[in-house]
């Protein structure tokens, strides 16, 4: 049955009075094999069936969007918590970074003096090689 604009929408319900001419034409074309009620039921099924598939698809889309919303909300909460944690850690990390830079400078100074001491020790070992204490010196420095 068509509505007042001449179109049929899935899921639309049109009163019997508006469809009486179409039903009469349809009944006469079926040679009286169908009653008006059965024809009306088949018209109703034909109109509502696409609507039910549309509803199923919309329900699937709605549940997918709800899951997506829940995931986005959870991600937002997690990001807020991590930002707060980073804000609490920032002063401590800054202090640790400064301490590490100071210790690295001190290590470079120590390593530089140790390398110089090792060179001096090797020179000492080379000078003592001719003596009988060579093994003792080599064992203690190397």
UniProtKB/TrEMBL annotation:
<dbReference type="InterPro" id="IPR000727">
    <property type="entry name" value="T_SNARE_dom"/>
</dbReference>
<protein>
    <submittedName>
        <fullName>t-SNARE coiled-coil homology domain-containing protein</fullName>
    </submittedName>
</protein>
<feature type="domain" description="T-SNARE coiled-coil homology">
    <location>
        <begin position="48"/>
        <end position="110"/>
    </location>
</feature>
